[in-house]
Amino acid sequence: MLMIPIIFLPAIALIVIALWFATKLRQQLRAPWLIAFLCSLAMQLLLLGFRYGYGIEGVLKVQHLSGVLIPPLAYLAFTNPSFSLSVMVHGGVVVVMGVVVFLAPYTADAVLGLITLAYAIGLTLVLLRNGDNVFAWAPLRYTAALRLGLYGAVAALILSGTTDAIITADFWIADGSRTSAIAAMASLGGVVLLATCIAVFACFDFAKPSNSSLDVDKAFVQRLDAEIAQKGLFRDPDLTISRLSKRLALPARDISQAVNRSTGLNMSQYINNMRIKAVCEILESTEVSVTAAMLEAGFYTKSNFNREFRRVMGQTPTDWRNALK
């Protein structure tokens, strides 16, 4: 009777979650990198099952090449950038691993471990530096689930990188005699980690709010718009949700949830929309430079301003102003 390795079960669960993101949540949460990351994890688990469950050693090279996709895809999954030249730079690790696998295969585990741990450190630093702003691309109601996923991804990368380092040491010290046992223990730990994350993830409520609550939220946000515009609070470049909460004497949680449910925007996008509107008014009614208008409206970095202006207006500020003329 053919036995199915237990590691296939979380792989199937990951594929189901990826399909759910790609179909049910496609309109609410566009996350192609996250879908690719989940698929890469599932593929790696299936390869581990074929190798250690059925003894198919021929998948080792494929395992190394597919394994090196996981760290950069983890990074891209939770930062969710648009496809650009900077994103293509992450493909360099795949090229490096390809060279290593075919020219120096005995170092593959060590190289893969270093790459994996480097990305784990990178993701941790991004989270520490930006907090939940890492998820500015996603509607607010998904932040808690994405934060859980990021913690799980960092833990998985640390486990994987550490395992590769231990396997490398085992080959140097004991000619790989304990590799199967090490991989089995790591796989078990990975399965437990994934099962825990999936179980907690299943408890999140992703349902859309009812029409009646949306009406309440819209009324709340209309009052919020008037208050922020009247007091010019959006012009503060250091404005945070907590500072806004204190200035308006409103609970921060109520503000962020109402804005998200009513507009589909997170707080950063919501405030930046106001700033962009102010910039357009300045550019339309005065001859000041784009940079001066940007600073007056509350932006303090050109890169963020240009990105947000294009998101809202669909073109660069210079092109928009030229179109007016």
How would you characterize the overall build of this protein?
By secondary structure, the chain is mainly α. The protein contains 16 helices and no strands. Helix 4 packs parallel to helix 7 and helix 7 runs antiparallel to helix 8. The chain is elongated. It starts with 7 loop residues before the first helix and ends with a helix. The model has no long low-confidence stretch (mean pLDDT 84).
The description of the largest β-sheet is: none
Mean pLDDT: 84
Number of strands: 0
Structural class: mainly alpha
Tell me, what's the shape?
A: elongated
* Computed Rg: 24 Å
Helix/strand order: HHHHHHHHHHHHHHHH
Q: How many H/I helices?
A: 16
Indicate the proportion of strand residues: under 5%
Count of separate structural domains: 2
Distance between the termini: 77 Å
Secondary-structure topology with pairs:
Elements: H1 8-23, H2 32-54, H3 60-67, H4 70-79, H5 85-88, H6 92-103, H7 108-130, H8 143-174, H9 179-201, H10 211-231, H11 241-248, H12 252-263, H13 267-285, H14 290-297, H15 302-313, H16 317-324
Helix pairs in contact: 1-2, 2-3, 2-4, 4-7, 4-8, 6-7, 7-8, 8-9, 10-12, 13-14, 13-15
Quick structural overview:
Helix content is about 75%, strand content about 0%. By secondary structure, it is an all-alpha fold. The longest helix is centred in the middle third of the chain and has 32 residues, at about 145-175.
List keywords for this structure.
325 residues; mainly alpha; Arc Repressor Mutant, subunit A; 2 domains; 16 helices; 74% helix; elongated
